[in-house]
Amino acid sequence: MRAAVYSAAGSAQDVIAVEEVEAPIAGAGEVLVRVAAVGLNPVDVKIRAAGHDFGAIRYTERPGWDVAGTVVAVGPDVEGWSEGDAVFALARFPEAAHTLAEFVALPVSDIAAAPRAWSAAQAGAAPLAALTAWQALDAADVGADDGARVLVLGGAGGVGHLAVQLAKARGAHVIATAGPAKQELVTAWGADEVVDHHDEDALAAIAPVDAVIVTVSDTLPPRGTIREGTAVVTITGYSAEQEAELRAGGADPVRRILVAANGPQLAEIAALADAGRLTVHLDSAYRLSDLAAAQERVETGHVTGKVVVLVDPRD
């Protein structure tokens, strides 16, 4: 089968190739999936450029974690899944998963039935970002129908646009930051207020919130949004000085999260999608043979929604 391979650390064009490798088989507790689509995320380009483990995230010369596709074989001790089932997953993260290939073996604990309302491209693009948003809201203690005020910094990005929708689905009043060209989209995704992240006066005018979900590197919430007990959850991390500044303003907790694979949570996400309450915006789609260009698109830092790689055996 064909699979993406890194030859070394370096630029996308220099180190990414598509090669013939041995196809996997489904082991105990696994299903074998014919891959249709794989989402790309900033972590993909960071670990490729590093060429080694990135914190807890394991480096591998065979990349890919997001995936959507069709079950073609079921391993021993697997119940509830059959050939022909459409599934999606964040596979094995932060361990290596090798999803950027024509076939992949997936643990059944990581998979869920793909949303019927989404295309395969959307299902493949979503898992890491959707689970990150879901788990960030959990970490911020944003519950269903509690009327929380939630600020999403970076409301048009891969995680951000899903965090806006998931917070809204939990009954929150959602404020999001986005550039002028993207504000209409963010409003359509359910944000009650959209603020230009370049407009310091508008940022300063945001009233205090119960939770801040930070999806943009090295970005502190506007000072006026923090009050005693405001939860600040970041997916990128803060320095000790930044964390101290937030805590001095009353933020509690201040947490950085690393997403975890979770099939049951993906099933809940799929249910929201099929109820028409969650969509995935595709910034762009690339063939497997164009993976280097796809990663370069992610590296621009200006992606709206998600970049996806389509794995077509006819390519």
Brief overview:
With 315 residues, the chain is α/β, with parallel strands linked by helices.
Structure description:
- The protein has 315 residues and is an alpha/beta fold.
- Helix content is 27%, strand content 25%.
- It has helices at residues 12-15, 42-50, 120-125, 127-139, 158-169, 183-188, 200-204, 240-248, 263-274, 291-299; strands at residues 2-6, 16-20, 30-40, 66-74, 86-90, 103-107, 111-113, 149-153, 173-177, 193-195, 211-214, 231-234, 254-256, 282-287, 306-310.
- Strands 3, 4, 5, 6, 7, 14 and 15 form a seven-stranded mixed β-sheet that branches. Strands 10-9-8-11-12-13 form a six-stranded parallel β-sheet, sandwiched between helices. A two-stranded antiparallel ribbon has the order 1-2.
- Helix 4 packs across helix 5 (158-169).
- It is globular, with a radius of gyration of 19 Å.
- The two termini are 12 Å apart.
- The mean pLDDT is 96.
Key features?
alpha/beta; globular; 10 helices
Fraction of helical residues: 25-40%
* Class by SSE composition: alpha/beta
In total, the number of strands is 15
Specify the number of helices.
Answer: 10
Strand composition percent: 15-25%
Biggest sheet features: 7 strands, mixed
Q: Mean of the pLDDT scores?
A: 96
* Strand and helix order: EHEEHEEEEHHEHEHEHEEHEHEHE
Q: Cα-atom Rg, whole angstroms?
A: 19 Å
Give the CA-based shape.
globular
Point out poorly predicted stretches: none
Give the N-to-C terminal Cα separation. 12 Å
